[in-house]
Amino acid sequence: MKGVWSFVGLAILCGVFCSGIEAQKLDKGVGPYGEFWKPIPTQRYWAPNYFYSPPEEPKGVYQADECTLCHKALNPGLVKAWEESSHANLDKLLDYQKEKLAEIEKNLGRKLTKVGCIDCHGKVGAEKLDHEKELAMPSPALCGECHKQEYQEFESEKQYGIPDWKPGRESHAKAYDANLDVDVWAAVDKNIVQGCDMCHSIQHKCDSCHTRHAFKASESRRPEACQTCHNGPDHPDIEFYRDSKHGSIYLIDGKNWDWNKPLKDAKYISPTCQSCHMYYKGQYSHNMVRKAIMGEGDVLFYDNVFKGIKPTDYLKNSKELMSRREAWIEVCVQCHSPRFSRDYLDSMDKASDSVFQYVSDAYATIKSLYEEGILSPMPENRPKAPAPVAEKYPDLLGGFYGEFWAKNGNQSRIEKDFLYMWENDAFLVRKGLAHMNPNGFTYISWSNLLKKYVDIQSEANALRRLAALEKKKLRARTKTKNR
Amino acid sequence: MKGVWSFVGLAILCGVFCSGIEAQKLDKGVGPYGEFWKPIPTQRYWAPNYFYSPPEEPKGVYQADECTLCHKALNPGLVKAWEESSHANLDKLLDYQKEKLAEIEKNLGRKLTKVGCIDCHGKVGAEKLDHEKELAMPSPALCGECHKQEYQEFESEKQYGIPDWKPGRESHAKAYDANLDVDVWAAVDKNIVQGCDMCHSIQHKCDSCHTRHAFKASESRRPEACQTCHNGPDHPDIEFYRDSKHGSIYLIDGKNWDWNKPLKDAKYISPTCQSCHMYYKGQYSHNMVRKAIMGEGDVLFYDNVFKGIKPTDYLKNSKELMSRREAWIEVCVQCHSPRFSRDYLDSMDKASDSVFQYVSDAYATIKSLYEEGILSPMPENRPKAPAPVAEKYPDLLGGFYGEFWAKNGNQSRIEKDFLYMWENDAFLVRKGLAHMNPNGFTYISWSNLLKKYVDIQSEANALRRLAALEKKKLRARTKTKNR
Amino acid sequence: MKGVWSFVGLAILCGVFCSGIEAQKLDKGVGPYGEFWKPIPTQRYWAPNYFYSPPEEPKGVYQADECTLCHKALNPGLVKAWEESSHANLDKLLDYQKEKLAEIEKNLGRKLTKVGCIDCHGKVGAEKLDHEKELAMPSPALCGECHKQEYQEFESEKQYGIPDWKPGRESHAKAYDANLDVDVWAAVDKNIVQGCDMCHSIQHKCDSCHTRHAFKASESRRPEACQTCHNGPDHPDIEFYRDSKHGSIYLIDGKNWDWNKPLKDAKYISPTCQSCHMYYKGQYSHNMVRKAIMGEGDVLFYDNVFKGIKPTDYLKNSKELMSRREAWIEVCVQCHSPRFSRDYLDSMDKASDSVFQYVSDAYATIKSLYEEGILSPMPENRPKAPAPVAEKYPDLLGGFYGEFWAKNGNQSRIEKDFLYMWENDAFLVRKGLAHMNPNGFTYISWSNLLKKYVDIQSEANALRRLAALEKKKLRARTKTKNR
């Protein structure tokens, strides 16, 4: 082993040499705003389906069993991870995995002894690979050649999403394309917004959850498997889960649970992300968007604010959402009484109405300032956001683009507060309730929501007073002139 | 097992049917402000002593051994948790638990083979239960029928609390009633402030720490058992512990410790929440409020700000608090030198004086604006908080009610900053020190405190300048008129 | 054991008695600003090399084997921790530890049976100790008498640090002295800024990472060993790691890894703090500052803002930093392709340029307000920071001193926002990228950076409008007078 690691130095030389080469696929962007941006080199890895091309070095055609000869020296860590995988140990599978293997072999029409580098980075079953031309980053479709059911489940998310929105939005299976639809993402430095890509890449990469190259199912069944994307100010899922009673029990007791069991057999005494979100009407699957209303922040506390539709009305008028709610209740009932489950989720909706009221009031304040010409600066007097961001009303009064771009008064602080109010805090009250995290929806989200509401009212007050003073002054000056 | 889970669908039907029924106990609130609010359905579960009544379905009388027949299908998770409990496995107890059992049996005057659903959800030792009429959510008093000592220890908290405050405030044993005493809690949407209930329910529910239905003592001895309530911006106990050296050692090494041992025998090499907070003069108990000064934020950095009493003076003049301090030092000395322990806690008090100075200065600024009529809006020109919130001086200048309610300038941002300053940051400097978390009291709390102090001073400056301009303008206008 | 613990009460008496005594070494500060401050008692423990002196009690000379007689009763926790240490169990060492022991014994010229209290708190190999006169807190130099190589590696950090800065700044090995160089640290209440000491004490205390008294190497190899210092708003290293995919794998799988192996043999399938930061060109050592650019916030986004040098230019013009980068890439390549590794770190630099632009724009705004006399209050009209803080341009426009001290407009909120912008957010975009935490550099840091940028622009706008109004008013008044 030691010898292997000492080869690293040599291998680096190759790496350094290879690294300067740009693949031609990086010439232009893709998606509706593709003309406005150019990919950066790392996007080859975030969206390999769109941008990947092999490095120029090494050249040559390699046999399937030659890969590790070099990569064990060059990247010992990744080879070691693969050596720990089921792919490398098809003879040591668990019973349920053996059944899966038998099915895969039946589909492929041949026996498998191992799944090696070339099967995923070239073609399934390939015997050799032209490194410079054929090397590929595996996509869900490629994984799906063996893992058919899982792939189909994952792809089926494309049929779900937010009612009245494009199908599959929001879903994991169209996450990257959702990114491409965002004007401000297209507009700003890709070195920054590749942060969006790193999560939204899940459309192109099964290893978002099943981390390479060990791909342990036991790992992807753990809440931590979700946390790299599902954390932070706009979706603190893992934070809310971790500190909830559900999460606390997991943290204390989880290490004693059998993570090798498929979810349907595991039945932990406390839920995980997976055991709730992958469950739907008695089954567990890779379609995780059939119960919850994804993107609630955008619909409940933004779109609907402009329409004046409060959450309980919106929800109860949607047959689809009401049916998802019933499926949600079924999850809770596994451990809680049906009366409690229903009452609790009802209270989440009613709480959302209170949130909605504050967001609507804040918006009304800003809208009124805008209509009276008191915003400072007014949209016409400030820099425009770069193309393709189209600043259309009401989006120009605190729209999402302000999350990633700002310039000299666009946005001003009152609109930025509003942006955070609907984009983060409002939704998080609901999310805190959904994840049974009491601080999550009170001292964290509700308090933050009120803080911004307060700042908005005080700022509006100051803007009005300044405008009034300037008006008097102007009038005075005019009078003086006219005297 | 599989068969059992497939019954869920059927069982749901019952749940759905039962859920529409409102118990009559939800008619009116309780406590000093009971007339101002009406409970929501979920409060049946947060304060069962006050609001619980059984669902209308199922009807009928059930024998003790019939419960799991239905609930195994309806709520398999909770039955599974119970099956893992000591209650279900009285034949597999640890030695110290056997002693406890013997004592319990002696008190009850009979042998126990198991503790089942009916014992806790009906009456201890009951043989049958009229589900529609007799089903109950267990209270500490009910748990105390068997667990006498633990119950008595828990109840004994009612004699402690903050000197000069109501007895038992702050304590776990009167936590829910403390909630009921808060005017703003009574005033706002219960669907939001049930977040307060979910923690303050500890007065009514032993399963806040001993989570149902496994009730593992080994779980309740872990810091994570406390975290669902003890986290967040106003009391980041678990956050401060986790990142402290104490917590780091626990996180690394804790899984190797024997959590089945009672605290008095365990003697971990790093403290947990329990090993410090349950300790008092050589004993461990369920009374956790005999050493620390609970509610410090309210006393040290709010009440005393108005009185002008700085922390070191307040503390050294209280015989009771000085005696608690001595008990606190005893805990530290288990691992640290007495000189270090004493000096360190002294430095926490002296640091509190520095905090106090900033809070007092900020308050003086706001008070002065108020007296000069420069707050904007002035209390008389803004919406009143809903009853029963009584906006009395000094509470109207940044009082606690602003944490949960706001409307158009009540509170304005300068008062909101002050609220967060005393309610969160000030106290957290002290808490960070108490939990030996260096960032906790510097870059987190002290910095946040100064940030708000700075915002308050700058806002005061802007308010004064605006007022001065408006006054001149007014004067000018008056002069013009009088000319 | 029980008997031992009941002695605590007695032992406390001694502690209480001893605690009133101040050591003479606490008379005055040390370092360049030593004349401006006096140490507090706890600093004896944060910087024992400078301030420690033994307590007056107990008096007398004790034999090596007498220590635990008393301390087992007085501080059972610390004795228990020592009993778990390798120091107490030299007969149960792992193979690689036996080799180390043999080497140590060769250097000392004698066999060791155990390493006891007196060896570290007195002199290595001492047989007795005059408690009142000779008791010492061990320094790295003392640990280095046995652990030569580790000590030398640690000390070697003093030769590294930020190019063009004092050698060893930033390094662990000169961390406390770096503290002493900070004017605001010298100026403010030591009870507060001992929070800085508690981390910067690493210069004087190996037990910052190797926590006493068990000193388990298996513990110090875990990421949690770093977290007590490396967390929080100014350096959320552990937070960014924990939620990254690297950290998630560690959290899930790490407990199965063999922590008893030295890093060079361990080769985990996901990196830890240690496996990246202690690695340098094929070797692991206690010098952790040879790859990264420490203190980047101060250089890239502060010093260089005033000089107008953007990050990519600064980095590519430094031979030293470019060579560190190559060493950094070698770490990534252990698991990632060289092309990806290089491209990714390049994108981190390019992202830094975008950050730099916002910081520069914000600074230009504040500088312009300053030059026009519009800051409110202007530096000449506000309280001066206490000595030895020298408010020199540009530091007076949002310099570091504002992190720990504020008074009535010094700093004002626009400068405070700028301070947080360069000191926290700007750097954290880079840190989030470095630690592969997508939310870390987008919704957390980039968003926070833009929020402050926006607040600064809006505040500047308000300040300008107020100043313009006051100027008119003044002019009007002057005109009236002159009329």
From TrEMBL, chains A, B, C:
Single GO MF descriptor: oxidoreductase activity
State the InterPro entries in the record: Multihaem_cyt_sf, Multiheme_Cytochr_ET
* Keywords in alphabetical order: Signal
Query: Would you tell me the protein name for this molecule?
Result: Uncharacterized protein
Protein's organism: Candidatus Brocadia sapporoensis
Q: What is the lineage of its organism?
A: Bacteria, Pseudomonadati, Planctomycetota, Candidatus Brocadiia, Candidatus Brocadiales
